[in-house]
Amino acid sequence: MVGAISLDHxxxxxxxxxxxxxxxxxxxxxxxxDHLSEYxxxxxxxxxxTVYLRDTPVATILPYQPPAPQNDAExxxxxxxxxAVTKGVRFGQPFxxxxxxxxxxxxxEELLAERREGR
Length: 119
Description:
By secondary structure, the chain is an alpha+beta fold. The chain has helices spanning 7-15, 29-34, 36-44, 72-82, 107-117, and strands spanning 16-19, 25-28, 49-53, 56-61, 89-90, 93-94.
């Protein structure tokens, strides 16, 4: 048969770092040790690497996903660390994040409270 590739040869190609049908690279432990920086660059770019011990998958290397912020202030801090936003300065003082409306109050009450507090 012309152009046919044996299953062992296909398996070896996949374990040498070529992508399989799902878009995940496969690597044996030896290949991973020899080419770690290349595999880590691939993972940093969003790829995945499945590590094999002989013909058995033993691990998957995935891109790091930091935990999601728990509240609005953490979310804004995370955006600032990434450089997506810059916190403002008001009257020479760092801007303090507060929700726009307190629970159960209206806009007018909030505006009057800010005026009384000198904000």
